[in-house]
Amino acid sequence: MLPVQKFAALGAFIGLFLAGSVAAADNPPADTAAQKALAKDAVCTTCHNESWRVPILSLYQTKHGNRADPKAPNCQSCHGQSTGHQQDPAGVHPEVVFGVKSKNVSSAEDRNGTCLGCHKTGLRMHWSGSEHESRDVSCSNCHTVHIANDPVLSKATQPEVCYACHKTQRAQTHRISTHPILAGKMACSDCHNPHGSTGPKLLVKNSVNETCYTCHAEKRGPFLWEHSPVVDDCTNCHTPHGSTNAPLLKARVPWLCQECHSGDHGAAINSGANLLNGNATTINGMLPPANQSPRTQTNARACLNCHVLIHGSNHPAGAKFQR
């Protein structure tokens, strides 16, 4: 292309660009979805601004306030249109009032219904009929929506939210043997699903053992020689929230063992009795050790010194969990 033709083409392009700019100025584009959402929010944030007694505007630092996301709700999506409140803010409350301490708070059913309008799948599919739902616990009892970092969503701060109701568990986690909850390495939701579960105690799995096996996989088995209370329920021997006996045992050894193995271990051996599967419970009956002979009370003070594989053994000679 000749130099003259190049300049002509460039001039034509600039002319088209300028013409388009003028046309755009004369006919501005329609408001985007984000601008429309902000316009709706402005009806509320005119009064509920940064000077309001409860933090509100930090909502825009959360997923709910992401105006680039067309699915993100606005104020009216959660609180209702609340036309009466807009006309008489002092006399009429919003259609749905969240919070815990407000005297005008809406019913748990109304608050939960608003949240479940969007959050009704995944971990929340078992909410209906769950322990929390049946006790009128609402989403806003645990979640704080308008702040950038919801405490219940962080492992470091989540337990304090749960402890507001579960005070016994708060005390247990301060015992000498606990899961690493206070260290921020675990949270309540690692074992429990607060939104509902098919298992007991809102556990994330269908049973206590399956929940424990998510971390303690080496205890799962199956083993050649299995210990009945272990197969039945881990909480037969352990208390999960905290104990004064390591490792999270419900009682000290040998008293924990003697809750089942209450026979006179020494007398059974001396009398030639048959110790089926290492269970010496038939010599002196099922009386507590305190009601038995002194020799019975003092035997087996360190059961785990010999029975080291108490969770199960795969050794051909491990019937008594000694190897």
How would you portray this structure in words?
With 323 residues, the protein is an all-alpha fold. It has 3 domains: 44-148, no CATH class; 153-210, no CATH class; 228-306, no CATH class. The chain has 15 helices and no strands. It has helices spanning 3-26, 33-45, 75-79, 83-87, 108-116, 131-134, 139-142, 158-163, 167-172, 208-213, 228-232, 255-258, 265-270, 294-298, 303-306. The protein is elongated. Residues 6-30 and 268-286 have low confidence and may be disordered.
Question: How would you summarize what this structure contains?
Answer:
With 323 residues, the chain is mostly helical.
Number of domains: 3
What's the rounded overall pLDDT mean? Answer: 82
Give a short account of the largest sheet: none
What is the terminal-to-terminal distance? 90 Å
Gyration radius, rounded: 33 Å
Strand content: under 5%
Which spans of ≥5 residues are poorly predicted at pLDDT below 50?
6-30, 268-286
What percentage of residues falls in helices of 4 or more residues? Answer: 25-40%
**H/I helix tally:** 15
- Which class do the helix and strand fractions yield? mainly alpha
Helices and strands, in N-to-C order? Answer: HHHHHHHHHHHHHHH
Total number of beta strands: 0
Question: Globular, elongated, flat, extended or rod-shaped: what is the shape?
Answer: elongated
